[in-house]
Amino acid sequence: MQNLLKISQQTFWQLIGKVVSSLTTFIVLGLIARNFGEEGTGIYTLAVTYLAIFFLLSDFGFNAHVLRRVKNLESRVKEEWQRLLGARIMWSAVLVVLAVGLLPFWPFATPEFSQAVLFGSLAIVASAVFVTCNLIFQSKLRYDLSVIASSIGTVLGLAVFVYLILLKYSIPHLMLAYFLGWMMIAVVALLLVRKFWRVVFPIYDQRYTTNLFKTSWPIAATLLLNVVYFRADAFILSTIKGTAQVGIYNVAYSVFQTVLVLPTFIMNAFYPMMLETLKFQIDRFKNQIRMVALGLIVVSAILSFVIFTLSPQLIKLITGSGFGGSSISLQILSFGFPAYFLSALFMWIMVAKKMYKQMLIIYSLGLIFNIILNFIYIPQYSFMAASLITVISEYLILIMQAVLLLISRK
């Protein structure tokens, strides 16, 4: 019961932060939809989606690996964190170069899209710093500090965005507000880490960094495959149908994705407790896992019903008018909530049990399945196909996870 209370408290703080960031996201989407239409919305959301892949790469699963290693070893946390920060800053700088350098090779990279990515690319470094700070907030169960940092940066980014909109700046220039918001998040997070240590400077250690990559790559590969199969449809849709269709789809997906942070928040709080209580022996933690799973099923079912019912009103509230297809897309996506909620739990159980290769196989198969179906059906059914294939793919992932976890118990 005490563990569930802690999970609830930490999830609550994360939800507060998500409420702020979601409101900001929807205000931004609404302003873009009203000022630039489906085409402009497609360019902006596609650029943000593209950068999000590099955000995930900058994470590279380091936090989960380091948290396992330093749990209950307070004397090692500070030095480990400084070396991690140095590794992340170096790695994210490389990713900035890759994100921009690969643009000429993508079939969906229009001049406006490429310029938008260029203006927003340095946010990759800021995101990497914030994620590194979150290791401390997560290990000490102080997500309130993470929420403070993200909320301050998000509100500042929104203020700059509104200012640029009023000055009639183009879509690519609006990405400057996106970048400034992330920079503020990183700066505030570093200041809050100083609550625990006065010195927060990074230390770059080549040997440490190399070992970190060697030990973390299976988690990173799994998370990358997860996000690529999660959002490959937007890039395929852009290539085949154009950015206007992406705009319609991504408005619906923004609402869908906002709901999906709930299981992520729950697992952010549950994973450290899982490590502390079990010392990696998951079978001794069955009752707590069952209770979390039941809670996820109930909450996801309720959310599916609510989002399906209210999707026309939600889309109209965000965009004003002209995005009727987004409502239908959101209704289809809402059927996927139960699968996404449970698969988040199963994935972190597999991480705790060090089932890295099995996870890699699961998400590789999911990615192949997703991409093949999208290429077959998007030409005829556009964003409707992308929505349905997203749901089907996640149920396939969930089934494979459940089968492997059952086998691992024998």
TrEMBL record:
Entry's Gene Ontology cellular component terms: plasma membrane
Membrane topology annotation: Multi-pass membrane protein
Keyword annotations from UniProtKB, A to Z: Cell membrane, Membrane, Transmembrane, Transmembrane helix
Compartments reported by the entry: Cell membrane
Transmembrane segments: 12-32, 44-64, 85-106, 118-137, 144-165, 171-192, 212-231, 251-271, 291-308, 328-348, 360-378, 384-407
Main subcellular localisation: membrane
InterPro entries hit by this protein: Poly_Biosynth_Transport, Polysacc_synth
Highest taxon listed in the record's lineage: Bacteria
Residue stretches in coiled coil: none
One Pfam family of this chain: Polysacc_synt
Name by which UniProt lists this protein: Uncharacterized protein
Organism of origin: Candidatus Daviesbacteria bacterium RIFCSPLOWO2_01_FULL_39_12
